[in-house]
């Protein structure tokens, strides 16, 4: 009787260990998928931000060619400059 109980307990422990390993593998896979999604999202944001900055600089250059007033040119250039300043300032802040 004791041997059957011990065998049952060992079987239950083995099953619990297998279930735990399967759970940990699923969590690890989920974290990998989340990290890949975050990377894609960050990369998309970088490309879109870069595109907007290039478009603003191009708009400023075009405004110069049209002999537009200086506030128009300043408005086109203020967005990329502000974005660069914000990015540089956020790099120096410690993350919580």
Structure, explained:
- By secondary structure, the protein is an all-alpha fold.
- It has one domain.
- The protein is 91% helix and 0% strand.
- The chain has two helices and no strands.
- Helix 1 runs antiparallel to helix 2.
- The protein is rod-shaped, with a radius of gyration of 29 Å.
- The model has no long low-confidence stretch (mean pLDDT 89).
Radius of gyration: 29 Å
Count of β-strands = 0
- For the record, the count of structural domains works out to 1
> What is the chain-wise order of helices and strands?
HH
Morphology: rod-shaped
Summarize the structure.
With 96 residues, this protein is mostly helical. The chain has one domain. It has 2 helices and no strands.
Features:
mainly alpha, 2 helices, 91% helix
List the helices and strands and how they pair.
Layout: H1 2-65, H2 70-92
